[in-house]
Write a structure and sequence with these properties.
- The complex is a heterodimer of chains A (about 270) and B (about 220).
- Chain A has about 270 residues and is of the alpha+beta class.
- Chain A folds into two domains: about 55 residues, no CATH class; about 140 residues, no CATH class.
- Chain A has a four-stranded antiparallel beta sheet, with no helix packed on it. Chain A has a two-stranded antiparallel sheet with strand order 1-2.
- Chain A is elongated and about 85 Å long.
- The termini of chain A are far apart.
- With about 220 residues, chain B is mostly helical.
- In chain B, helix 4 crosses helix 8.
- The N and C termini of chain B lie far apart (about 95 Å).
- Classes of the chains: A alpha+beta (about 270), B mainly alpha (about 220).
Chain lengths: ~270, ~220
């Protein structure tokens, strides 16, 4: 036995665990010939005795009587209303759970189909009617950002109803095509589509003016770019000098970020 | 001539000890509303659960709370116990372990205010410089070992507590912690090595005490 093998059995030797007699003998013989391993065995034995002494010092420890009293009260109160599931045998309860789970899944599927299919039909119809609006913009970008101010140093901007909203970047037809190609994307696509519809149809959306993000004065306002809708912690408002309601500090706030062709964010506006 | 070889496929004999059967029977009756069975089950296992929580946390209040929570969970969800997955005791220790770990996570947010007088802090030091681990059975050193166990990371501590302080077998500990026996072995090996290192560290600090504690004012 070498030192590495000895290390593998030293715990068992020190704890007097049941191990193979040959391994035990070889280990003890090795400890006699190797000083380091002998010291290791001595340390392990001392630790074992210390741990046993510590364990013995806890032998009388038990929960106080008030715990039993409290639990008994809870048991008496609870046993008056034992749930039906407890009265079922383990096997029958398992099969009952399977049945309930299967029924719930079926109900969810039916509900999803009845709610999604009409929406898909409506999407197709709306797509045709909106083709004019969407066709004016490229799927991923728009020609010009007319409402991005070249320089805007005022951060404490009043929130006003938006009169001329920038064209939205997301492509409705793209979402619909994706849904056709892969029905699995329906739930996420429907959410995406719903938020897009909301953005298009909602005339009540309030936004601040675009606030330039002046990382570098040399960066000129972009001629071409993209507007991306994001969600930020409400505390981000404070970074732009806008008032923050402390009670709602944990909530998130929507914002449109202008990205230049180089991918850098140039301006931001907050949306309510 | 080829020697025919008979292979016996021995199915492991399933023997259920009377203790395990008793626990399962008590649990079944408790779930049916039998108060006596619940009390019997509580009295059989409360000591072990309490000690486990106490040794893991070092706090009597935590141990008391955890013991109470374990049996409340048993009352509410005892019907979920599956004998195929382990014994009643492993189930109870498993609940206790989850509660203890949850408390550790919650208490991580708080920083304890250490109030230590000179006498008690001096008494805790381990001062056998020549033979650091030779006198581990001394009463004052038990406190050092206790502190060293409490300073272990939780996943090593729980193995040391179960296998060393509660003398569980590797298989029993594996059932409680829901892991392989090999994992228990390796964690115990590492945990013991860390204990020896820490006790050595305490010895060195004890033989070379530094009574002056620097206080810094951030005001």
């Amino acid at each position: 036995m070498n030192c590495k093998d000895f290390e593998a059995v030293v715990n068992d030797l020190a704890r007097a665990s049941v191990i193979d007699a040959a391994a035990r003998k070889a280990g003890l013989e090795h400890a006699e010939s190797c000083e380091l391993c002998a010291a290791m065995l001595q340390d392990e034995r001392a630790l074992t005795s210390g741990l046993r002494a510590l364990g013995a010092s806890f032998s009388e420890a038990c929960a106080p009587a008030r715990t039993e009293t409290a639990l008994l009260s809870a048991f008496r109160a609870g046993s008056a209303a034992i749930p039906v599931s407890n009265l079922l045998s383990s096997k029958s309860w398992k099969s009952a759970r399977w049945f309930v789970g299967a029924a719930a899944a079926a109900a969810a599927f039916v509900l999803m189909m009845t709610s999604v299919l009409p929406l898909i039909q409506r999407t197709n119809e709306r797509q045709k009617s909106e083709a004019g609006i969407i066709a004016k913009t490229s799927p991923t970008e728009f020609e010009r950002l007319p409402d991005v101010p070249a320089v805007n140093t005022s951060h404490a901007l009043p929130i006003e109803p938006e009169s001329s909203r920038s064209p939205l970047v997301r492509d409705v037809s793209g979402i619909t095509q994706r849904m056709r190609r892969n029905p699995r994307t329906w739930p996420s696509a429907m959410n995406e589509r719903a938020s897009l519809d909301e953005a298009i149809n909602q005339d009540q959306e309030l936004t601040t003016d675009f606030i330039p993000l002046n990382y570098d004065a040399a960066i000129a306002p972009p001629d071409r770019g993209r507007v991306v809708r994001v969600e930020l912690p409400r505390s981000a408002l404070a970074a732009f000098g806008l008032p923050v309601n402390i009670d709602r500090a944990n909530e998130r706030v929507k914002a449109d970020v202008v990205l230049g062709e180089d991918g850098l964010a140039r301006a931001i506006r907050f949306v309510r | 001539m080829t020697a025919s070889k008979t292979v016996y496929l021995l199915k492991p004999k399933m023997t259920i000890s009377p203790t395990i059967q008793l626990d399962e029977e008590l649990l079944r009756r408790s779930m049916a509303g039998d108060e006596e069975a619940f009390v019997a089950l509580y009295r059989r296992w409360q000591g072990g659960i309490y000690r486990f929580a106490l040794q893991m946390s070092g706090s009597e209040a935590t141990a008391e709370d955890v013991t109470q929570e374990v049996f409340i969970v048993l009352m509410r969800e005892g019907h979920r116990f599956d004998p195929a997955r382990g014994t009643v005791s492993a189930y109870l220790y498993g609940i206790a372990r989850n509660h203890v770990l949850r408390r550790f996570q919650r208490d991580r947010l708080f920083v304890p205010i250490a109030v230590e007088d000179e006498e008690t802090s001096a008494g805790k030091h381990f001062v056998a410089a020549d033979d650091p681990l030779g006198d581990l059975t001394r009463t004052e050193v038990i406190e050092s070992v206790r502190q060293a166990v409490l300073s272990l990371p939780a996943h090593y501590r729980e193995v040391v507590v179960l296998c060393e302080l509660n003398e569980m077998s590797y298989a029993e500990a594996a059932s409680v912690l829901n892991c392989a026996v090999g994992t228990i072995r390796s964690r115990l090996h590492r945990g013991r090595a860390m204990l020896i290192e820490r006790l050595r560290g305490q010895t060195e600090r004890g033989s070379n005490p530094q009574p002056v504690t620097q206080m810094r004012c951030f005001a």
